[in-house]
């Protein structure tokens, strides 16, 4: 079990196979969850400086069919340790964190069972305190504590804890509703500032279906044409993932067929979101960052927007034209959020940390990556523009998309991906120096980013190792036809000497 437990760490989360599927064996079951819970009790008690019986913990799950039984196994261990547990049942990841903020609950910590957008046979666990989500080192220590307890049988039985079964979704919905009402502050219709707007939601049968009825309709919006609002842990219609082309296709069609003003799509646990405008155009990835930046820079002129490393040069130009500063950092939503926090601590105003995946965290909202809150911020702007007979697309005036873009993932046959990737990057740096049309971007915090300029136009690529898999990722963009192919051919020529890299995708 020791080896299995260590493999369950996925960055700052726990993720594993919860249902046997084809050749994938179960790694996250009642037994491993119980062991993790024991390690968690030990860790959270020390972290908070409290005895278990003094700690109140909330627990919730997305609709995955394994969520209930895994959550129960975890809760049993918490109760045996003497903790007070709020069992919220079906929940969203952001609402679980807010259980530590809302005075009604004032939980010391929160636990969410989810594997985000991964297929139904996966599950996982996210952990929070009032300070935010766990870091990688926190997860590592929980696992090591679990292993130590299994080896030494150090679990102490105490007075049985207390369980409170309730829901937090209605409280969280009210929080969002009041946020939108207050900030729109409509003189025409304060209670229903979204009246006259038609907005559709695609929840992908995840946990986000509440948003249509509990938020949009309460605020006066029409939601006809919304799809897959009912939770279904098998996700029978499409993967609940704003980055998935099929999922976005469903939302585009829903907006156009319903002649809606706006469309919203959430991932499974609602910590990510993306949108579609009335014309069926995606507001996703770089475009979503551009829209979010326009909103926060109007409220915080001259401030800094932190993004992940693969954002476009066009986005950088757009943020700069708005008077803001753009700080590209390492991929991974926790990396981006932590960098934003660090900048603020140094006195550099940074109101937003956002990844191209749709993870967006606002300073005003405890730097919580929250798809519903991101949507609320956009809807506030949408409502104000609607009163002025303007559209959300007006905020994106001057923003340009690259003509071509591509992401390539190359499998690497090695156990030490970071060391191997570092070698490749070091040798690529020399290769770049010898390419007259290429130049390395010096201010770069992940892998190697290279500008590619020639007579036809310009572009760039970023080569990096994956955060969790033995994969080298390459992102490329160009502002002219054939630019990506040209870059790809040169990279293929460079990479062909590395036998451990599968270059068949090039």
TrEMBL record:
Reported EC number(s) for this entry are 5.4.2.10
Q: What class of enzyme is it?
A: isomerase
Domain Alpha-D-phosphohexomutase alpha/beta/alpha per the UniProt entry, residue ranges: 9-148, 172-280, 286-397
Cofactor dependence is on:
Mg(2+)
* Keywords, ordered alphabetically: Isomerase, Magnesium, Metal-binding, Phosphoprotein
Into which family does the record put it? Belongs to the phosphohexose mutase family.
Q: What is this protein called?
A: Phosphoglucosamine mutase
């Amino acid at each position: 079990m020791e080896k299995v437990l260590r493999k369950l760490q996925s960055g700052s989360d726990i993720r594993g196979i919860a249902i046997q599927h084809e050749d994938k064996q179960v790694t996250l079951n009642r037994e491993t969850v119980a062991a993790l819970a024991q390690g968690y009790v030990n860790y959270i008690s020390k972290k908070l400086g409290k005895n278990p019986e003094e700690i109140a913990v909330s627990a919730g799950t997305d609709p995955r069919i394994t969520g209930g039984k895994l959550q129960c196994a975890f809760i049993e261990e918490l109760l045996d340790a003497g903790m007070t547990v709020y069992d919220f049942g079906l929940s969203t990841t952001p609402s679980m964190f807010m259980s530590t903020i809302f005075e009604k609950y004032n939980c010391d910590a929160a636990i969410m069972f989810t594997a985000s957008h991964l297929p139904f046979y996966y599950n996982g666990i996210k952990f929070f305190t009032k300070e935010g989500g766990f870091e990688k080192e926190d997860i590592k220590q929980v696992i090591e504590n679990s292993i130590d307890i299994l080896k030494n049988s150090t679990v102490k039985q105490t007075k049985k804890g207390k369980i409170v079964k309730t829901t937090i979704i209605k409280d969280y919905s009210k929080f969002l509703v009041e946020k939108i009402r207050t900030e729109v502050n409509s003189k025409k219709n304060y209670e229903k500032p979204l009246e006259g707007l038609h907005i559709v939601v695609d929840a992908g049968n995840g946990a986000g279906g509440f948003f249509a009825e509990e938020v949009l309709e309460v605020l006066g919006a029409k939601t006809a044409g919304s799809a897959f609002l009912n939770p279904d842990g098998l996700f029978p219609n499409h993967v609940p993932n704003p980055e998935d082309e099929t999922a976005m296709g469903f939302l585009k069609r829903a907006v156009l067929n319903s002649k809606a003003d706006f469309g919203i799509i959430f991932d499974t646990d609602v910590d990510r979101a993306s949108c579609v405008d009335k014309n069926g155009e995606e507001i996703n990835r770089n475009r979503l960052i551009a829209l979010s930046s326009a909103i926060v820079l109007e409220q915080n002129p001259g401030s800094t927007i932190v993004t992940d490393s693969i954002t476009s040069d066009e986005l950088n130009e757009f943020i700069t034209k708005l008077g803001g500063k753009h700080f590209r950092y390492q991929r991974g939503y926790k990396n981006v959020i932590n960098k934003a926090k660090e900048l603020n601590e140094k006195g550099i105003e940074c109101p937003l940390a956002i990844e191209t995946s749709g993870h967006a965290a606002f300073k005003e909202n405890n730097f919580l990556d929250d798809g519903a809150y991101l949507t609320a911020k956009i809807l506030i702007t949408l409502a104000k523009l609607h009163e002025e007979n303007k559209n959300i697309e007006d905020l994106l005036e001057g923003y340009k998309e690259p003509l071509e873009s591509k992401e390539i993932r190359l499998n690497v046959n090695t156990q030490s991906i970071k060391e191997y990737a570092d070698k490749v990057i070091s040798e690529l740096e020399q290769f770049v120096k010898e390419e007259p049309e290429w130049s390395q971007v010096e201010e770069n915090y992940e892998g190697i980013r290279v500008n590619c300029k020639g007579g036809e136009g310009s572009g760039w690529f970023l080569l990096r190792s994956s955060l969790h898999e033995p994969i080298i990722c390459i992102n490329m963009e160009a502002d002219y036809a054939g630019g990506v192919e040209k870059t790809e051919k040169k990279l293929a020529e460079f990479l062909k000497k590395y036998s451990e890299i599968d270059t068949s995708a090039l």
